Amino acid sequence: MLTVNLTTHMDEWLHLDHPDMPPLFVSHRRLARRLASGRPLRPAVNWWALDSGGFSELDLYGGWRTSPAEYVAAVLRYDTEIGQLGWAASQDWMCERQMLAKTGLTVRDHQARTVSNFVELTRLWADVSDEECPFMLTLQGQTLADYLTCWDMYGEAGVDLTWQAVVGLGSVCRRERTDEVGEILLALRDLDPELPIHAFGFKTTGVRKYADLIDSCDSGAWSIGGRYRPDPACAKRSCANCLHYALAWYARVTESLAYLPDPIQRSIFPASTFDLAV
């Protein structure tokens, strides 16, 4: 069953005991503000996942200002004091063209930094906790060949993707409905049919189109809709932060997924396709 994580910066929703509350996707940047202000972390009611805030960090600063050690220390606190943490995204480097322009680096540079960060996070976690490592690795790139190269780079670093609890697919936001993303997903499924794929930033159209090729995704599309198309029955001028609007959006999405046809029989790429990664 496909899991859709509701992206929100309303971190207090983690503590709401609401019968319809979906699994949330909350940014480290948001929770870090709570830590910096001295406000306590409170236990979560439901399962949730942590966004590392990478898009904002690279967009604002052209690189990561949060060190791996700082991030690990924060995640340890979230895991201990908030609890119910399913996984935490690694500090990956997005490969969208605007991000490359921000950093002045190449796709291969971003991939190398993404891989080395995951290795560093897992090493640091082992030094501070005996609990299972919560960090999720992310495949980064632009083209199919890029993602296959990134897969190989993890292998060269000693990371077996087939043993991961969840594998993120990055830099697909805003192109989730394209055939190119479908080709990438299908290629990954051909490498490992059981690979648990999380697609970052998938909007509703992409979720419906590729529901049979992903296991989970996250979306904050509801907040954008609430900002520009608020609920007429709501007294607020904007529903960008309204729980009722978010839950109504989520209900519509999950209901639409329930009526999707049986999984599409998609063709498997010929072996020659994977020569692109060499």
Number of helical elements = 10
CATH topology term: TIM Barrel
Helix share, percent: 40-55%
Taking pLDDT < 50 over at least 5 consecutive residues as the criterion, the unreliable ranges are: 267-278
Content of β-strand: 5-15%
Distance from N terminus to C terminus (CA atoms, Å) equals 34 Å
**Quantity of strands, as a count:** 8
Largest pleated sheet: 8 strands, parallel, barrel
Task: State the fourth-level CATH superfamily.
Answer: Queuine tRNA-ribosyltransferase-like
The assigned structural class equals alpha/beta
3D architecture notes:
The chain has 278 residues and is an alpha/beta fold. The chain is built from 10 helices and 8 strands. It has an 8-stranded parallel beta barrel, surrounded by 5 helices. Strand 6, helix 7 and strand 7 form a beta-alpha-beta unit. Helix 2 crosses helix 4.
